[in-house]
Amino acid sequence: MIILNDGCSHSAETIEDRSSYCDFLPGKIYNIAVPASGINKHHLEHFLDHDNKDIQLTHFIFQIQSPSRQTVYLNLEDKVFLNTPIDYWDSSKSHKLKVWVHEDQSKNIVKVHSIKRGSMRFMNRMKESSLSLDLWDELYSIEPEKFNKMIEQDSPRLVYDNFLWAGFKRRCRIPTTVWTYLRAHDRKQVDEFIIELFEAQDRYFRKAIHEIDNTISLIRKQWPNIKIIFLRYEETGMPLIYEFSKSFFKNDISEYCNKNDITYIYEKDFNTEWFRGNHLTHDGRHPNAEGAKLIAERIKQAL
């Protein structure tokens, strides 16, 4: 038995603050799950690009990530939207932007990059000092004209105004995702844009299913007789993310599996709140060893 597993941190390799169910499965396991990742075919493409095509896989386990982990795109027609990278920052499309960020951060000039209100840290490559100021962070940002020029050759054609520049990574403002926007507003009053995101729910679900289908096509092209298992371990501790995603796991994924001869493990208890309440997590979200064993036992029944 040779198993390939994909997913996010809920199934990624074991480290200090999380355990992977892959540790408790039989046979040889290749685990390509990546923490904080959304649904995408790039993990599989990377695996295939590294001389793994001759491995005789027998099973593919896909721990389905939240459909909210995809870039918020603005003002795009449906066809263009469907063909944009599901996560722009992690796609090859953002390469020029990442190069610009790296070059900008390498300059020997003072930048502001503190994390919390009330203190501001000034830092360059030579020194570091802190001041107590009532200011929010200033994070690296790029001018719209510069961004548009960078990606003018890209296809599909996007511009600065097609993104919501509210997220940040490595101290740089980046195109935000549905996940980051909903998580940031979880304990706040629901705003007009959250309502717009929920109204566009089906659109994001179709894009997620499209990406899943691309992944399954790659798998079956390389291993026509492989058994495919989808697993739902759902984030239920963040109310807006849960409300946005729950029907995707219950209905859309179930329908896709029925149409494509895929085993779907949908257990009502396989969610972060139930695991937390039963002391099966390290941190309230990620399975500990006992939680990982519980998931593994269910997977074994489907192997």
Q: Which features does this protein show?
A:
303 residues, alpha/beta, Rossmann fold, three-stranded antiparallel beta sheet
Mean pLDDT metric: 86
Main sheet strand line-up? 2-1-3-9-10
Structural class label: alpha/beta
Which architecture of the largest domain does the CATH hierarchy give at level 2? 3-Layer(aba) Sandwich
The share of residues in helices is 25-40%
Integer-rounded radius of gyration:
21 Å
Uncertain segments: 108-138
What summary fits the major beta sheet?
5 strands, parallel
CATH topology of the largest domain: Rossmann fold
Order of helices and strands: EEHEHHEEEHEEHHHEHEHH
* Total count of strands: 10
> At the fourth CATH level, what is the homologous superfamily of the largest domain?
SGNH hydrolase
The figure for the number of domains is 2
Query: What is the highest CATH level, the class of the largest domain?
Result: Alpha Beta
Percentage of residues in DSSP E strands: 5-15%
- Please give the count of helices: 10
Approximate shape? globular
